[in-house]
Structure formats: C-alpha cells, structure tokens
C-alpha cells in the first residue's frame, strides 16, 4: 500500500513499509488514515535521495545533503556518504586556503618572536656592557691606588704599598705612618682614618663603621 507525500508541492507515492523505516514518518503513518496526504516542508529534490538511501544503505547519498538525513531522523555514517569530484576539489581548495592562512599566521608569530628575541639580545648586550663598565669602574675604585697621580694597584686597599703611610691628601707631604690622614687633613677627608682602609668614614667621625 502506498502513502501520498506532498513535499513542498510535489507528490510522491511511497510504499507504507518504506516510510515506516523513516523515524520522521513512523508515528504519523501509524496514527493517520491510509488515504491522508502527508505534507512535508522540505526540498523535493533531496527527498528522492532520502527514499533511495532508506531502501539501499549503499546508495551514494550526497554528503552535502546530510542535514536532510538529520531532519528525517535517519542514522548514518558521515564517512560513508558520497562526495562528488567537484565538491572534493572545492573542499581541498578550502583546506588549502585555510592551511595557507594558518601558515601565514604562524610565520607572523615566528617573526614577532624573532623580533622579541632580537630586542632581548640587544638588551642583554647592553646589560652586559653596563655590567662590564660597572665592573671596570668598580675594579678601578677597589684596586687602584687612591692617591692622586699614582697608577699602582692597591689590591683592594686604599693606597698602594708605595703610598701607604703617606697622607692621602695629594698636596700633603706629611707621612702619618699609622693613619690615612695627617692631623691637618683628618677632618676634611672622606675615607676612614684607619691605615689603608678604603671604607667611607661615618659622618662627623674619623673612622668607618668597622674601625669606629
């Protein structure tokens, strides 16, 4: 027995036992009169594929109409659906474009990373130069003799072995022997008065915090 199906104006007469295999029609057919025409607001073009796929699961049902299978409640494996050569080429081109865009975005990100790395490298170079200069100046302060016009190394002391015992004031010829300053210059100097100590003295005192 056939049942009339009106798919958006086009009439199909489908055997009842076939329609019962389609979940969308099953309840309708079981409860309605046999002479009733069922209206379906879907494409008549795709409906013939629905019937063919219901009859034969090996029918090459077009993948692009998979949404119609969802509407009628028909289960399917997406990988088993048919895709035409034209659609396949279109999909390949689409994937190619998407992959190209991903590669371009990745290249932009790599370029940004490289720029950041270059900036970091320059920063490290500048920092290294700064540390070198600081170390150089620190070395000069810590290891050069602090007496004017003397270029000898003091090895971490205030004065070299040739100047120690002399007043550190460059214009003074006095040799206090046991202190850094003579009695005349002891209050005007910045260094601790303990012999060969290169620490800065405490304000209003003659010695540093170690020798006070």
Describe this structure in words.
With 212 residues, the chain is mainly alpha-helical. Among the domains are: 79 residues, Potassium Channel Kv1.1, Chain A (2-Layer Sandwich); 66 residues, no CATH class. Helices cover 43% and strands 7% of the residues. The protein has 5 helices and 3 strands. It has a 3-stranded mixed beta sheet. The protein is rod-shaped and about 135 Å long. The model has no long low-confidence stretch (mean pLDDT 86).
Task: Give a quick summary of the entry.
This protein has about 210 residues and is mainly alpha-helical. About 45% of the residues lie in helices and about 5% in strands.
Write the layout of secondary structure elements.
Layout: E1 2-7, E2 10-15, H1 16-19, H2 23-31, E3 38-40, H3 44-55, H4 66-72, H5 85-143
Parallel strand pairs: 1-3
Antiparallel strand pairs: 1-2
**Which strand order does the major sheet show?**
2-1-3
Terminal CA distance? 119 Å
Helix content, binned percent: 40-55%
CATH H-level superfamily of the domain at 2-80: Potassium Channel Kv1.1, Chain A
Structural class: mainly alpha
The overall pLDDT, averaged over residues, is: 86
* Rg: 49 Å
Key descriptive features of the protein:
single chain, 212 residues, mainly alpha, Potassium Channel Kv1.1, Chain A, 5 helices
């Amino acid at each position: 027995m056939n049942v009339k199906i009106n798919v958006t104006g086009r009439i199909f007469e489908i055997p009842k036992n076939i329609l019962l295999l389609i979940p969308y029609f099953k309840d309708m057919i079981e409860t309605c009169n046999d002479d009733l025409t069922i209206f379906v607001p879907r494409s008549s073009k795709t409906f013939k594929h629905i019937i063919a796929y219901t009859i034969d699961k090996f029918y090459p049902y077009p993948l692009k109409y998979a949404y119609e299978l969802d509407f009628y409640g028909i289960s399917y494996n997406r990988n088993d659906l048919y895709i035409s050569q034209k659609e396949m080429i279109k999909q390949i081109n689409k994937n190619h474009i998407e992959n190209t865009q991903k590669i371009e975005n990745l290249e932009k990100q790599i370029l940004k990373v490289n720029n950041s790395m270059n900036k970091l490298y320059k920063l490290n170079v500048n920092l290294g130069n700064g540390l070198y200069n600081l170390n150089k100046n620190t070395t000069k302060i810590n290891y050069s003799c602090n007496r004017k016009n003397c270029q000898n190394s003091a090895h971490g002391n205030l004065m070299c072995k040739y100047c120690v015992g002399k007043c550190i004031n460059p214009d003074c010829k006095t040799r206090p022997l046991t202190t850094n300053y003579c009695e005349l210059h002891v209050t005007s100097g910045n260094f601790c008065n303990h012999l060969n100590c290169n620490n800065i003295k405490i304000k209003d005192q003659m010695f540093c915090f170690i020798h006070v």
